[in-house]
């Protein structure tokens, strides 16, 4: 398992006076439990591309997959910097999260098999993937898998409001 040393800081400028930093373990657990994420990538011309997707938590970070013909795949070929977000979409409760980092393609087949099992366990049998030639395969061509190597992350707690920054 990959362990990232994490520095945790509460930003008092954006936090209630009674707020405390959200522990990284709590944020990591919330990242792992979420069902839907939003991936932000940068188009080769500089525009932002945002799309919802599924992801799984393994080895201390999020993993996602995308087809080779999709816009996000083309964006990653030009710029591997990404943001993955998830949260509650509720103003007064819950935890919203942002993970900023670099998307790195996973090619190791034993690791891909473990990730495929994670996908199916989390999302059900309709998300079954075979592993072939360093990618997922589900009957419509190779689906590369990416690990997000974290640089920074943020947790936005609500009730009380707290803004926590994690540096890796």
From TrEMBL:
Membrane-traversing stretches: none
Stretches assigned to coiled coil: none
Annotated Pyridoxamine 5'-phosphate oxidase N-terminal domain residues: 25-154
Keyword Oxidoreductase: yes
GO cellular component terms listed in the entry, alphabetical order: cytosol
Keywords recorded for this protein, A-Z: Oxidoreductase
InterPro entries, per database record: F420H2_bilvrd_red/Heme_oxyg, Pyridox_Oxase_N, Split_barrel_FMN-bd
UniProt superkingdom: Bacteria
A GO MF term: oxidoreductase activity, acting on the CH-CH group of donors
Name this protein carries in UniProt: Pyridoxamine 5'-phosphate oxidase N-terminal domain-containing protein
């Amino acid at each position: 398992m990959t362990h990232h040393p994490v520095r945790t800081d509460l930003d008092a400028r954006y936090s209630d006076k009674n707020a405390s930093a959200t522990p990284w373990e709590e944020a990591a657990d919330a990242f792992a439990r979420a069902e839907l994420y939003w991936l932000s990538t940068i188009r080769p011309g500089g525009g932002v591309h945002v799309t919802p997707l599924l992801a799984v938590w393994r080895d201390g970070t999020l993993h996602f997959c995308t087809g080779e013909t999709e816009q996000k795949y083309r964006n990653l070929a030009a710029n591997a910097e990404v943001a993955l977000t998830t949260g509650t979409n509720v103003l007064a409760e819950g935890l919203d999260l942002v993970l900023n980092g670099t998307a790195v393609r996973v090619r190791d087949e034993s690791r891909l098999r473990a990730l495929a099992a994670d996908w199916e366990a989390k999302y059900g049998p309709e998300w079954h993937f075979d592993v072939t030639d360093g990618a997922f395969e589900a009957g419509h061509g190779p689906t590369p898998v990416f690990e997000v190597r974290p640089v920074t992350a943020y947790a936005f707690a609500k009730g009380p409001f707290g803004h926590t920054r994690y540096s890796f």
